[in-house]
Every structure is written in structure tokens, then in C-alpha cells.
């Protein structure tokens, strides 16, 4: 989509990222587990690179310069052999901008970063119940890895 500008998010994008995080909570039916002040502090630290230095955020803007989505990702090591991979943790596009190419543009930008920086692959997960995301990823030509199981421990 040529009407979308994608770039790495900076501290100047804090308000937009916080707004998008709030929308994600509503989309998944989650409640914010931290205080608004703590969420802002954590997000500011990620954007400044002072915490989780491998965590980065791509942000998408429309032609009106409105933030319409983002992709958060981290470097992982090891991947295949001793290579590194990128893990797409979250891909979110505002509902009224879905199907217009913003999600595809975010993924393509992430793949470009992976290629340019020598990562061996990009990986991600999606909920089994999220059929829309699965159709989207299928259209991108991604393949499902059925040989892995996802585990989580709440702390």
C-alpha cells in the first residue's frame, strides 16, 4: 500500500503507541494489568532503547499522518544453527484500516529489516481463534509450523 508510511517508532510516538495498546486490550477483551503510569513508563523505556534493547516497534501512518497500526518485534538467538531470527510479537492495525494494506506493509517492512540485517527468518504466533489473522498470514504466503507448541508461565 503506497498510502502508508512505515518507520521505526521513537519516543515521539509514545502517545500513538499507548493509544494503539489500549485498542489491542479492547480487541482481545483484556484489561490493562498495570497502571496507566506504569504502562507509559514501560513503553517509554522500550521506545528509548534503555530496556529490552532488542525490542523494537514499527509504526504505520496513513496519508493524514494518523497512526494506524504497529508491529513490535525482537531479535532471538539462536535460530537455525547459530543464526538469529526476528520474532513478531504483535501486529495490530486499527479496524477501519484493515484490508487496505497496512498490515502487509508492516510485515514487508519487517522482512526487509530481517533481510538487510542478516536474520535467518521471521517468526510469529497467532491465536487459534483468530481466523482473520490466519487468513491474512496465508495470503502473505506464510506457512504454519505445526511442529511447535507454545508454552506460557504467568509470573
What does this structure look like?
- This protein has 155 residues and is α+β, with helices and mostly antiparallel strands.
- It has a single domain, classed as 3-Layer(aba) Sandwich (Aminopeptidase).
- It has four helices and five strands, in the order E-H-H-E-E-E-H-E-H.
- The protein has a five-stranded mixed beta sheet, with helices on both faces.
- Strand 3 (67-76) and strand 4 (85-93) form a beta hairpin.
- The longest helix is centred in the N-terminal third of the chain and has 15 residues, at 14-28.
- The protein is globular, with a radius of gyration of 16 Å.
- It starts with a strand and ends in a 16-residue tail after the last helix.
- This is Acetyltransferase (GNAT) family protein.
- InterPro entries: Acyl_CoA_acyltransferase (IPR016181), Diverse_Substrate_AcTransf (IPR051016), GNAT_dom (IPR000182).
- It comes from Actinokineospora diospyrosa.
- Residues 4-155 form the N-acetyltransferase domain.
Amino acid at each position: 500500500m503506497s498510502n502508508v508510511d512505515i518507520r521505526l517508532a521513537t519516543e515521539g510516538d509514545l502517545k500513538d503507541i499507548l493509544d494503539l495498546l489500549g485498542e489491542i486490550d479492547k480487541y482481545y477483551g483484556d484489561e490493562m494489568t498495570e497502571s496507566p503510569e506504569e504502562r507509559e513508563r514501560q513503553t517509554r523505556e522500550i521506545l528509548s532503547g534503555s530496556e529490552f534493547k532488542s525490542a523494537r516497534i514499527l509504526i504505520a501512518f496513513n496519508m493524514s499522518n494518523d497512526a494506524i497500526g504497529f508491529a513490535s518485534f525482537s531479535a532471538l538467538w539462536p535460530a537455525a544453527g547459530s543464526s538469529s531470527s526476528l520474532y513478531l510479537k504483535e501486529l495490530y492495525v486499527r479496524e477501519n484500516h484493515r484490508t487496505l494494506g497496512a498490515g502487509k506493509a508492516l510485515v514487508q517492512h519487517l522482512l526487509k529489516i530481517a533481510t538487510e540485517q542478516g536474520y535467518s527468518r521471521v517468526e510469529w504466533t497467532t491465536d487459534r481463534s483468530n481466523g482473520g489473522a490466519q487468513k491474512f498470514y496465508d495470503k502473505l504466503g506464510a506457512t504454519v509450523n505445526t511442529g511447535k507448541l507454545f508454552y506460557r508461565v504467568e509470573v
